[in-house]
Amino acid sequence: MDKVAGHGYVAQNSGALGARRPRPPPSRNMTRQPAKKTKATRPKAAGAKQSGLACVILAAGQGTRMRSARAKVLHEVLGRPLIAYPVELAQSLAASPVVLVLGHQKDAVEAALAGRFGAASLSVVEQKERRGTGHAVQTALPALRGARGIMLVLSGDVPLVQRKSLSALVGAARRYSCLAMLTTVPPDPTGYGRVVRDERGHVLRIVEHKDATAEERALTEINAGVYAAPIEFFREAVKGLGARNAQNEYYLTDVVAHAARTVGVSTIEADFRDVSGVNDRAQLAEAEAMLRARINTACLAHATLHDPPSITIEPDVVVGVDAEIGRGVVLRGRTRVGHGAKIAEGCILVDTEVGAGAEVRPYTVATEAVIGVHTKVGPFAHLRPGAVLAEEAHVGNFVELKKTRLGRGSKANHLTYLGDAVIGDGVNIGAGTITCNYNGYEKSETVIEDGAFIGSDSQLVAPVTVGAKAVVAAGTTVTKNVPAGALAIARAAQTAVAGYAEHVARRYGKGSAPAASSANPSPRRASATRRRPKVSG
Ligand code: UD1
Ligand code: CA
Question: Which domain holds residue 519?
Fold first, then answer.
């Protein structure tokens, strides 16, 4: 299969939405830096060896504004929980350790992460009481004992940050031994922390929306909640946090004022679409729409999408060159679409592989299936887990396959159920064929060898084998193995009862003529029609 990564990780989707170049911290701030601190931080940044990168992800909050029984970071954007996005970003930057601060529904969040990333790859600290983002970082720091270099702080609810923005952020923190932060200018800054700068444009501090004066609320540049700085800086800065503010919380944002007085603050401006936070369900929907558009745009570089806004392609899906995707198609999980394959309107493919040149016709639903090269499937086919179609096989309308291999060039074109079956090459499965694979207790296998012909409306009671080139007569219930090349026929002999129709009609007193069809008006209606001209004339 000719595979082209339309998009892989979110971070690889770039387009024009990247970050601007970092603004170095103003020299004014640098000169204010205490000599002692300079010594403490400089050697690591200037060292010949690249110092390490650690990452802390804040995800202990409940997400009150979601109004949900489920923790906010477990809500999904394009098939993945929110929390998976920052974790993948941290891993893509080779950050180690990656420390997650969890609290609300900690066990459920941990289970979701373990299922996806393996339990060993992440370290989790519990923030028992949610006393703010600053307190969350205080809680995380002991897990970073011994770690050196730069610490990246990500938010569990800011999923769409681009990898290159984070690289730039970490680079700036490393180069200048300063606090680097992502900022943006959103269409509506309500709710976000505002970036307060002095008259020369140097960052002074962040003021949270709830604490801001009317004048400060008029500021349009906001804090994205993503930071990088030497670990030592965070250790020092979070010691002095207080909770005298509108929310009585320890704000991580207060470390910005600390940095402005000491190591300096460097800002990197990101596109708002990449750093918007998810606090409520409207923002969740917006984030999903933005990610969908980003992925679809990346696919359009080499594939045709009909009505892209109607098409959903999840982040791990791979779409091949010259593929054609119809309106309303949903491609989920690890689905791969081969070179030149066509997926028509309304198909839903989950973890499914589609071979080059395959044609998947409208409204086909497939899960964990393999649709071979140059096959034809659908419309309205249902391929369930373990359905494997070899090259040039055909599966038609209202055909369901489960854990079944359909060999090369074999056909099952109409109204059929094939479950737990191994079907060879060049086999024809007639309309209405059913593999009876389940006796109420266990599943059994049906084997149909190369070149066999299964007549319409047959039942194959498994376990059973139909030999190569054998023929099963239409309407047969096959309960015994059919030898290769043999005909299996199991139906009552047909008899013809002469005069039956007339006999029955007479019994019901309906005369001797066969029942009239609507095309043949009854004598009464015919005479009425004839009479009508007289009445009107
Ligand atoms: C935060 C920033 C704000 C910024 C915005 C960007 C603070 C005080 N404010 O506000 O300046 O504009 O993000 O999206 O940092 N969390 C914990 N433990 C806690 C509290 C929060 O782990 O005790 C986690 C949350 O689960 C969440 C993240 O930290 O993932 C941010 O918390 P949230 O309450 O959403 O902060 P915002 O009000 O959005
Ligand atoms: Ca938030």
Answer: 495-537
